[in-house]
Design the sequence.
């Protein structure tokens, strides 16, 4: 399959600028990474509504809290590793607990950061964010969806964490593919097995479905862009109708999207399942594709997991 | 310099005595809480809610109100007592502190208690949150002011200094920080646990206008706050020299009463000293 590869960050920047034009309550903060996260686009369009907080992520999150408590809709951005772990207490105490209108849109998540290595490759941000009460967690699948997600969450009043990557990602949705927060998208129908992906691993799941089709296996592919609130209905229905589930994510398998799906299925409809994701180890420097292979994030890994699930299905 | 008639000042002082008595009673009834840091901050709170701030207890959401952030959230009993005396809550509700289902959480929660502007309790967040409010006021061309009360223990927190830098970088002359300089933190004297001095010089070096006062003297609190109002282009830090546990002899300067409720006898004596009948 040939995809167009595009930048999620670029669409984030574009959506922010549009929001800035449409609404005067939109305020954007960054922590000395605005050229990387692309909040710089907003900064140059609306300098008076952009505040660079310097290399002070904790300060940025609490400043966001004060702005949100004063009626602003605040987007705060930095790399995901600094925008979650570095300021976890600030997010917990001043964003999630008081349920303030703050959108943390964090870029450079996962191992596709590449050369910077493990210090910058956060593989546990979904775990940290999804366990917080009041916090929604979204992983846009591609650049189009990033744009729509940003435009959509600007209309909610609650805290949201959005995870995007550094690298360009395959564009698997159209510009007008509808996006609804908390409602998973079925990308391809099938009754033999379900492949659930998020972020870049949704495109890998679609490729895996093509591969499985060559062997007469009809895979359903779901883009689970919203990790929380979880679309349990779509997940359980797929498990019921296909009898087996494979999840795929660019995140530690310990407590990411796959774990959320597993918990849902254990409680609602138990089927054979396999999680594709980063094992319980830190990443390292390398090229994206090398890293994806090394840490088990390929189309082949998904196909193999699907065969394993099908075997257990009986 | 403004002249205040003695009667007005002694009225504030008698409110402060009631607030101290409420705070000690609440902690006694709850069986836990932080008397020391509540009592050292009472005079500042009373000067704010009964004279210096523009606010309306009947309309906690009034957009033009001044904002007060209790960064040292463990001083909650004093804040709740001041809010109740000011009319945000029934005084009778104070006894629900820390009880199941209460609006009065152990540490301030902005979603539960009218008049509470920011949820705090984890130390070192309040100044940055105050900065956010100050930025919003500037964006909206509003004249309301932001007041943040920090403990001196919070000066250990890196984020405090990040916020100090941000406030002066963005020329936030609409924010004033009161520093409750009671010279004690949880484990001991600040200068023994983590040296802070020369503290005034540090704030000056970060671009703040600095005033030092006796934090138990109403006149000085009022004058310093008015001076802060007149300073343009930079934020003001008011270093309030205070006594931890102020008002109850055996709590004054006591480490023990940083985070411990008085027992029955201690409670009775505290009330005698504050000139209030025990509840
Ligand atoms: C981040 C954080 N670490 C530790 C604590 C526990 N704690 C509660 S009060 C306190 C001491 C605070 O000292 P100070 O700010 O001087 O307050 P005061 O003496 O005025 O009570 C500590 C360490 C906390 N609440 N937050």
Sequence:
């Amino acid at each position: 399959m040939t995809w167009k590869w595009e930048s999620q960050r670029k669409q984030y920047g574009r959506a922010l600028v549009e929001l800035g034009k449409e609404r005067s309550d939109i305020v954007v903060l960054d922590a000395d990474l605005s050229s990387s996260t692309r909040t710089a686009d907003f900064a140059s369009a609306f300098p008076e509504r952009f505040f660079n907080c310097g290399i002070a992520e904790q300060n940025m999150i609490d400043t966001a809290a004060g702005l949100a408590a004063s009626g602003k809709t605040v987007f705060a951005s930095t790399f995901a590793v600094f925008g979650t772990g570095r300021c976890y207490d600030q997010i917990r105490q001043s964003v999630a607990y008081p349920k303030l209108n703050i959108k943390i849109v964090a870029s450079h998540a996962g191992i596709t950061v590449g050369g910077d290595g493990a210090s910058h490759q956060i593989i546990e941000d979904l775990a940290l964010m999804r366990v917080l009460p009041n916090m929604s967690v979204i992983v846009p699948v591609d650049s189009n969806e990033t744009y729509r997600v940003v435009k959509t969450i600007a209309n909610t009043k609650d805290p949201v964490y959005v995870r995007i990557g550094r690298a360009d990602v395959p564009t698997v949705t159209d510009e007008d593919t509808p996006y609804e927060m908390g409602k998973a998208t079925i990308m391809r129908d099938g009754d033999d097995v379900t492949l659930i992906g998020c972020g870049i691993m949704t495109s890998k799941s679609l490729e895996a479905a093509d591969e499985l089709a060559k062997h007469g296996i009809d895979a359903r592919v779901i883009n689970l862009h919203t990790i929380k609130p979880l679309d349990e209905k779509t997940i359980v229905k797929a498990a019921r109708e296909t009898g087996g589930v494979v999840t795929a994510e660019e995140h530690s398998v310990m407590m990411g999207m796959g774990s959320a799906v597993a918990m849902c299925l254990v409680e609602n409809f138990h089927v054979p399942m396999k999680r594709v994701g980063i094992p319980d180890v830190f990443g390292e420097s390398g090229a994206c594709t090398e890293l994806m292979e090394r840490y088990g994030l390929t189309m082949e890994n998904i196909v193999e997991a699907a065969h394993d699930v099908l075997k257990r299905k009986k | 310099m403004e002249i205040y008639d003695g009667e007005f000042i002694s009225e504030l002082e008698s409110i402060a005595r009631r607030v101290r008595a409420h705070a000690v009673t609440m902690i006694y009834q709850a069986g836990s809480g932080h008397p020391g840091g509540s009592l050292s901050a009472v005079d500042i709170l009373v000067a704010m809610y009964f004279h210096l701030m523009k606010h309306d207890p009947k309309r906690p959401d009034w957009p033009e109100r001044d904002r007060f952030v209790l960064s040292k959230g463990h001083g909650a009993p004093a804040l709740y007592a001041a809010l109740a005396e000011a009319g945000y809550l029934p005084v009778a509700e104070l006894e629900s502190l820390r009880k199941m289902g209460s609006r009065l959480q152990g540490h301030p929660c902005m979603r539960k208690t009218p008049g509470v502007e920011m949820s705090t309790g984890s130390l070192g967040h309040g100044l940055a949150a105050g900065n956010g409010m100050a930025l919003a006021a500037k964006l909206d061309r509003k004249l309301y002011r932001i007041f943040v009360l920090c403990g001196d223990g919070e000066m250990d927190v890196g984020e405090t200094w990040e916020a100090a830098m941000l406030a002066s970088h963005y020329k936030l002359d609409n924010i004033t920080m009161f520093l409750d300089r009671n010279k004690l933190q949880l484990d001991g004297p600040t200068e023994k646990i983590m040296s802070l001095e020369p503290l005034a010089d540090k704030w000056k070096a970060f671009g703040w206008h600095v005033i030092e006062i006796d934090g138990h003297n109403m006149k000085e609190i009022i004058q310093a706050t008015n001076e802060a109002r007149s300073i343009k282009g930079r934020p003001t830090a008011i270093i309030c020299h205070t006594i931890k546990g102020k008002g109850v002899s055996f709590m004054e300067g006591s480490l023990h009463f940083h985070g411990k409720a008085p027992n029955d006898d201690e409670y009775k004596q505290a009330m005698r000293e504050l000139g209030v009948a025990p509840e």
